[in-house]
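Reviewer 2 asked us to include a model.

Predict the structure of this chain.
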Amino acid sequence: MSRFRTGAFPAGALAFSLALVIVFGFRGPEDLPPSQETLENCTVVMVGKDASTDGSVFATHAADCGVCDWTFHYVPPADHEPGSTRVVYNIDQIRTWPPSEGGKWTMIKNDPSGLELPQPARTYGYIHGVFGYMNERQLAIGESTIGNVRKLANPTPAPKFNITMLTLLAMERCATAREAIKLMGSLAEEHGYGRLDGGEMLAVADAKEVWVFEIMPVGPLWKPESGKPGAVWAAQRVPDDEVAVCPNESRIGEIDLSRPDFFMASPNHIDCAVENKLYDPASGKPFSWKRAYSPAEGSAAQNARRSRMWRFHNLVAPSKNLKTDLPNMDFPFSVKPDKKLSVSDVMAITRDKSRGTPFDPVRGIRGGPFANPNFYRGTRLIGVPNVEYTTITQTRGWLPDPVGGIVWLALGAQDTSCYVPLYAGIKDIPHSFKIGDHWEFNRDSARWAFDYVDFHAQPVYSHALLDIQEAQAKHEQAIVARIPEVDKEIMARFARSPLEAAGYMTDFCLANAEDVVRAWWKLGDDLLVKYNHLGYYDASKRTRERNKPRPVELWEKAVRMIDVLTETETTR
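Predicted model (structure tokens):
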């Protein structure tokens, strides 16, 4: 049955619609994005050590908020006197404050939760953005919001923990993924989880393994004095020779606690579901965590906004030929990739735009005259334009922890940004990474350099992207190739003095980051000149001529067809 009713359209509009169907395969209103939709695109990719080319463990995070804090910070290790305490704060993932008021990480200190925890004798140094990402022991974290069934939400002040605070405490106190999961789970059980957050997934990794950790509130009636756990959580380990993904959907299904090397869970992980009528033991069906607490119905074929699950598997394991109509909840928890993945492969996955698939955002005329994948929002992509930053944590068990851990950080949109390495053992973050926000242009802020390039790339995307990829090859892939040499130099210094090695690592990371930021400011200037007024000026030829960049041929064809249809309509 046609989705266009003749009586609802004037003749010219109907002719135009039919032309789109015939020429471009336009299927109707379901192809168009809804007028309002919460965009959640923090895709997490996880790679076990035997699924990577060099034995690294990888976990990614794309902070997709679009209005959140983008600053990065280093918290040094610290020794604590007996009896000292750690204040637990209410930290909203999204809320920010102007730099003139001190910014987010100053202002959260004005909102303590009322809970203080005894400090351990020593806390680890770590790197954090919106969440804690890596500490000096190679503990690493990535995040994806997964949501929960509505009745479990607990926005009351009773819960003392949010997901950001849990990650910071894990960074401060834990050396392994398993330690971090147990700490975060136990704190949330005892003191409650929710208020500012709902269902969340964390990829929790160390130098040996990576786990999926998922946590939910337990409803608005929970109180600490109830004696019941104030959270429900579960964790499943990704097999060492496999890879996994979380595209804002719960990934844990059946839980087998008789296999502690692969599963952990809170003591109430089934009882909470039974009490809330989310699971009936009398049904005869095995308990499924995701189906009880955070069901994500549908498939990529039914809803293109659920296509990331399929696309990841299509990229890493095409031989499995998993179909677009396979319900997302039926996808495997993890798969063995067709080929082992390098850090460059993981970078490419974070930039993926589903090109050449049924969910291609530039299919037909969706991308406009210069094949811009950011125009069309009907498909949720792995690489998104509204991302604050993307992290790839790389942990390497054959090296000392401060050397083995690397946070690869790309500020702004993945496709127009550049990954820079930050070793776990560094003692500072580049100043330009610590400052700035969305609401005030600041040439001293690194993020604005990448936004500057991205802004000048949008009008002539298909052409400008080639210039950007050339810069990425020079400043990103060259550093990737150089890392083994840098590792060797760090290790030589480490043998003499860990302090000397830390100084060298810090100097290297800061110098490289500052070099990239300078290069991106220059690249933005060059793009402005080269494509000014939608022209094309080749500065290398030293001529004072300006040409026009060629639009996509199909787009030109569409314009001509619309011109014909418009002329037909006006002559009636």
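The chain has 13 helices and 18 strands. Confidence is low (pLDDT under 50) at residues 1-39. We have added this to the supplementary material.
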